[in-house]
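Our preliminary data section would be incomplete without showing what the modeling component actually yields. Below, a chain of 123 amino acids is followed by its predicted structure, encoded as tokens that our downstream tools consume directly.
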Amino acid sequence: METIGLVLVIAGLAVLGAAVVALRALRRELAETEAAATDLAERMNALPPELSGSFGTGARHLITVELLNLFELAHRESVFTRPLTALTPRLLRDVVHRRLVTKVRESLTASGVAADVRLHRGR
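Predicted structure:
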């Protein structure tokens, strides 16, 4: 009886090992496919996936803004943001994005521009 139990444990470990190897191979293949798709989209100047479903390639024009100095903007606002950058960069990024969206919306409204200002997450 003990021999049968040992054989079953060894067989289970072998199956588990095979599953782990297969999972790693699938993850590697997924990463390669995602990188190839991203590269192809960049070469085609395609919209990001989260925008292409909403906006497509129709007659509407979009103005997009990518913030390149996000943490510098945050550091200018307060001296407390520097430690927060190290502890909670995502939270700080979200706060800065929300504040800038509000400022852009207010600025456009003050200029008489009717605009739908939204925040979309990219990769």
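Residues 60-110 form one domain. The chain has a mean pLDDT of 80. Preliminary results of this kind motivate Aim 1 of the renewal.
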